[in-house]
Give the backbone structure.
Amino acid sequence: MNRGTTSGKVHTVTSINVGLKNLNREQDTTVTFTHVDHSVVRFDDQLDVKLEDINAEYRPGKVFAEGGQGIIREGMDLNLRRLVAIKTLKPQPEDQFSRGQFIQEARVTAQLSHPAIIPIYSLNTDDKDGLHLVMKLVDGKTLKDYLEQLDYEYRTVGIEQFDERKSLMYRLEVILRVCDALDYAHNRNIMHCDLKPENILIGEFRETYIMDWGIARQIEEPGYDPATWVKPNTISGTPRFLSPEAIHGEHTDQRADIYALGLILFEVVTLREAYMARTSAEVVSMIREGRIAETRHKYGFRIDPDLKAIIAKATAYNRDERYQTVRELGMDIRRYMGGEETTANPYHLFGKLSAFAAHHKRSSLIFAVVCILTLLLTTGITCYRRISMIDARHNYSLELSEAQLKSTASADYIEMNITRNAQFLSAITSEFIFLYETDMDDENDIPDCMMPVSSMRNDAKDPPASLLYSSVYHRKIDFSHFAHKTIHGDKLTDIEKRRLHVLAHLRNPIMNVFLERLPRKVADASPSDRNEYLRLTGIPLHLLLFGFPDGQYVVYPGSGTYAPNYDPRGRHWYKTAQEGDGGFAWSKPYPGNTAAAGYLLSCNVPMLDTAGKFLGVAGFDLHLNTIIRDLNSHGNTGTNVLEKSLIDDSGLILLSTGARFAGAMETNKEDSLTIRFDDADLFRQFKETKYGTISRIENGRRFIYCVNYLPSQDWYYFEKLDVTSAVPDTFF
């Protein structure tokens, strides 16, 4: 959450024609026309779980922003010792609408796990039945504040003192990040419904976030039928960013978000508002009549025709004439920034020749001289060849852009899974610490879901029926039980029993996390089919591990392959967390408990109680072979894709589909795998590029590296493609 951003006030208005005239434009507040029937969460919904008291888990700090209905303050996570942002709903007596909208924002945002959407940590209450939403704390400013600051500098100093072209490219990069996040939300069947510069946050490290999902709803709503749908009396949104179909009371879809994003793009490019009016009623009238402002820069800077065409297509009055998906809009902006042809303004023959000439001035001059000297003999042939070359170059550029987009999709897949798993581990450790410090009455008997390792061995007398052989784990595993062991036999101390009782209380959420990561078609299958998929096909999330200072070890799913002298304290994953700085610690790739199981990548965190006492280590293993299998079906595919690799900031290769990494996994004899990226110059280019493509010639062949930076872990993901035969060398 932004330290300097205040949530907009919310006013309830009964109709479009009544009430708007009293809101002046300078207030720029969010006007809400509430139509409850089409919301993601009904405002009269009651929470079906008991919320934890905010003061039990967090220590609220100073207020740094305040709006009409809520305040935002800093806070301290008492379990993980991290700063958070706490959004608190002001007391609203008998106002179920405000509470429902606050709960809706929490639930919708929690469903969206994306680097450009601020993660939600928890929803809490207090002794006065208040509501508190805890989320990541982000330093930065809104896009509106950024544009206002830029406008002030241009107005006071003069635009000629700045590089407006460079500034525009940066602003378009912000819009691209918004496009990526919005595309992710739309694919999750969620539309924002209130996009505006105030709800776009730019962090201090240029990361971008979409905020304020309070009135978001489903795109494809359950039970929606165009034949029976009734035109609503009221709608929701900020007047100057509403779409024409919303103003007319029609049923809206993701194209309404695209229209709002087009208006934001208009402001980003021109530094002017698309609808200039003194009152909200005038804004509504202008939108209804399609009287959008001319795409002209406030300070006279020339706007390219391609960029004007993109804005015009995104803000088309008829939604069928707009971009139909946010991804299409993002791809057109990327083509424009790369100097390529856009779908909004396709080139004719002269345009293609002009674009080529602009990028190859010297070659074009030579070509013109040759054409003049050989005009009578070779005019027809030369024109044909040059046009073919332009088309080939154009097609190659499109393929390169698509390759980068596919690579970015793979990087987002990795980033999303890593973030989800890390959030899960954080939640589980917090719950473990809370329950461990809570009095419990059922510590006499060992819970049924906890099985000793000795009872799961192949030679066990009466192993559980759910213990079955897995071709992924290469041993018998049990998704219905945890396995536990100590270094002193099966007789447990009181502390060891207490730990098992605590983990037994966490059994259902842990099992659900494994099931939630199944493909959609499998997730809808029967429980037995889901277990079969986990057992025979597998997911990247391999094991959940717990190790304790006295040598006790607990693992899910359960297995009996651990030797009697197995001690977690000597394992790589335990030592990595214990010797770390107290936060999440990633291990080097290391071999699993059995040779056939392959290599694992472990994320671990020390568990500290509220007094700072070390209780043990919790972690999860990612199965590299499963991740590599999934990578082979994500991103770019084909025989020209030579390698897909993930490397950390020091150059250590964490996983790779390349032959070098595969050979090392077969021959390595150490307790971890240490393979480094051996091209220092190329790795330096990765760090400088962060996002984009790098062209290289190696051993007479041309390769393209599609690079993507993973900011959550400071890692780099790249895909190496052989493009030698894709286009002649003369095109480079």
Q: What stands out?
A: The mean pLDDT is 84. The two ends are 44 Å apart (CA to CA).
